[in-house]
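FYI - complex with phosphoric acid mono(formamide)ester, inputs then prediction.
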Amino acid sequence: MSAASAQHGTPILSTRHLIGVAGLSVAEITALLDLAEEYVEVSRQRRKLELLKGRTQINLFFEPSTRTQSSFELAGKRLGADVLNMSVGTSSVAKGETLLDTAQTLNAMNPDLLVVRHQHSGAAELLAQKVSCAVINAGDGWHEHPTQALLDALTIRRHKGRFEHVVIAICGDIRHSRVARSNILLLARMGAQVRIIAPSTLLPPNAARLGVEVFTSMEEGLPGADVVMMLRLQKERMDGAFIPSEREYYRFWGLNEQRLALAKEDAIVMHPGPMNRGVEIDSVVADGPRSVIREQVEMGVAVRMAVIDALARNLTREAAA
Ligand code: CP
């Protein structure tokens, strides 16, 4: 049995829900990453634990997802939970049922964990106030995507061994990205030196107050970077034209081999996915030797196992109190 199960019961998170990284301390983040590291091996061996036997996890996704939904499903199952994936398209949401009514209906079935993705910022927090189970935010509007930031952090720590003084360039559509927001908060808190690089139209209005270095040119922002994190253009959240054309965007902002050569020689390339090849990233880079994009996906399962385990520990302690 892994150290993870031997330590089962030790509290990791002080909160009942995981809504964002904004409320997490350095100690909580470190403990989650350490636990996830143990789950990497469990996951690689495709072992099924019984830590969450008798627990029920419902995945409620109002927006499309490949990586997050499937990895939450695998994570819950590898921990021994019963996992139900709600297909919103074929649920009564299609008949006009509201987010709250849907969640309260599911809550009446006594789940332990509700994993929710929603197009509106604040949806996960609202649900957390209305249901009796633990809520995990799997991405809410432009707000936060905490488990993505945690899996990105785990990937970076595995390659760089630390966060202090690691220069991380987050490039592309920062303005509409919950991934960027969660990563900026988490990586800066852990001591990394975070830069954002984007055309001025795709920078958030509060860029200067984020505590990061801001660049509007890849050529200026990439030199010295240890990590180059590319982001997709979030067209589904754009309410106007933010770039002249995808072709021009790629010409000035796309990551190709020449631009990557500006970063440090051992810089790694990350992307949360889904990628738009030939828009923000060249296939030669996405599939090249410095890309850790597939590893990010693998870390996603381990991190989500750690988060589910951590919240389930709190439920157990609550029930025993
Ligand atoms: N990174 C991410 O959230 O991917 P999905 O939309 O596929 O879940």
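The mean pLDDT is 93. The longest strand covers residues 134-140.
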